[in-house]
Amino acid sequence: MNDETMGQEDAAQDAEACAEALESLDRISLDEIAFDDSGVDVQDEPETEAQSDDQDAGDVEPAEDEADHEDTESEAGNQPESDTGEETVLLDSLPAEDSLTRELPGLGSAPAVDETIAMGDIPLPSVPSAREAEVRHRKMSPKRRNLMVAGVVAVALVAGGAGYAAWNGYQQEQAAVAAANAHTMMSVQIGVRAAGLDCSTGSKIPVQVSGQDSDGSSVSETLYVDEHGRGIKLLPGDYTLSIAASPIAADGTIYTVPTTKAQVTVKSDGQDLSAQATFKLKVPSADTVTGDQIDAAAKYAEEGGASSAATAKVLQQAATARRDAAVNAVSAQKAQASRDADARHKATDLYQLDIPVEWYGKVETWQNGSTLCIYLAGDSDTPIVTLVAVREGESFTPDEGDTVLGAANLGNGYTVYASGPVYPYVVPQTINGRTQDPVSTYPMDTAIELVELTTGNRYTYSQIKNDLVGKDGKADGATKLETDYLAQILLPSIKAQD
Predict the structure, then answer these.
(1) Residues 6+ apart with CB under 8 A from 290
(2) Model pLDDT for residues 387-407, shown as the tens digit of each residue
(3) How many CB atoms are located within 10 Å of the residue 260 CB?
(4) What pLDDT sits at residue 40?
(5) Where is 462: in which H helix or E strand?
(6) Beta bridge partners of 264
(7) Strand 363-368 vs strand 371-376: parallel, antiparallel, or unpaired?
(8) Alpha-carbon distance 224 to 433, whole Å?
(9) Over 70: is that where the pLDDT of 427 sits?
């Protein structure tokens, strides 16, 4: 039931109650109602005066006898006569000393009145005495008293009705405000995270909005927000938000569109919905961006995400150029990696292998039959490791000064042995750029590079010299470093020749 219907029913009930009160007033007896003498309407005085005039016209002496009777009753009761006049007094008949400024009991002097005002012919209303009030009270008809009571009741009902009308008016005003808000577009903000996006130079983010507004109307439209999530205006209602396509940054960046959807309720203007609707747009590798993604982003940019169709076209070209450049760069890297792989790939008549990536460009090789030597680039007298294929059942003895660093079984009756100097042990013994062995001489930068190559940069020259080898000259720790590293990066790549 709405407020208007309720108000009509309440007004009907009030009218019915008032009618019942008026009908019951005729049954109220005088004894059941207490009257205050001060409440008698002074306007009844003309009736009394009229009766007095009739009596004077008919018989003057009874009036005098009645006056004498009243004087006798006043003296018998020892009650002073009221100072209030019982007859109309004219201003021009007052003596000079009885001016309007005379002092009234308990009130002090009244303000002076300008005597130039011609008020001599205007009669002043007389105040009835207690006896007159009593006489009027007794002479009042029951019907008139009932009407007076009914008036009081009616005033009370009117006052109550006025209060209800005020409250009902307030409710109607609030309902009108709510109705107006229900038809007012509200600005709301959502959460957006898109690294590097500046919508003042790029395009805005298209947001797909679907749902139902407060009027019950279905909504399905695309709105656009900036990098702060501002730009959506909706009527109050319940909606589902999602990202329709990627925006385009000024440099041509295309973002990955999140697949998440958010349920929101729009209630007021300026409402922050980021707690319920936050979308993260990540930046993918530019070479993975497809033509369809660029076309979709350009479409929404042209329809409202960019300042103009021309701007949308420029952003589309930037996105295409960025993607193409990334694709070309990746292709070039792959081509170079293929060339490097070919350069790193080595083969003998019995086995093949790949030079470790960490060594590529820093080492060179020489080959003799099934023997392959990997040495420091530009210095063939400084071998890092030498590979030799040995038939199963035959023994292998490394060159003087070298140590067996590992072996790989080819599975075709041959085993490849890796041997060479233990540089993590030999090099740290360098004193002033020379080792204690006069056969091997290494400048300091060469010594450092050899340690890095044979340990994979896991330890520095100083760490190996001071901590791993120490002053006792034992090579066990240093040897383990080199053998472990070669077992990880070199030996696994040794395979039998096809």
Answers:
(1) none
(2) 999 999 899 999 888 889 999
(3) 12
(4) 41
(5) helix 461-463
(6) 239
(7) antiparallel
(8) 69
(9) no
Residue of 261, 210, 491, 218 lying closest to 356 (CA atoms): 491
Phi, psi of 372 (to 5 degrees): -130, 125
| DSSP bridge partners of 222 | 208
Residues with Cβ within 8 Å of residue 44, at least 6 apart in sequence: 136, 140
Count CB atoms within 10 A of the CB of residue 352. 16
Provide the pLDDT confidence category of residue 98 given band limits of 50, 70 and 90. Answer: very low
Handedness of CA 118, 121, 125, 126 (dihedral sign): positive
The predicted-structure confidence for 439-465, as pLDDT tens digits, reads as follows 456 777 787 788 788 887 776 667 766
- Take residue 122 and report the two structure tokens written for it: 């205007």
The SS3 of residue 284 is coil
Q: What type of residue sits at position 495?
A: K
Q: Which of 104-113, 267-276, 322-331 has the lowest mean pLDDT?
A: 104-113
Structure tokens at 441: 């001489």
pTM (predicted TM-score): 0.52
Residues 6+ apart with CB under 8 A from 383: 373, 374, 375, 376, 420, 421
Query: Hey, is 109 helix, strand or coil?
Result: strand
Tally: H helices and E strands in the chain: 11, 19
Report the DSSP pairing between strands 230-234 and 186-189: antiparallel
User: Are the C-beta atoms of 164 and 252 separated by less than 8 Å?
Assistant: no
Higher-confidence residue of 5 and 273: namely: 273
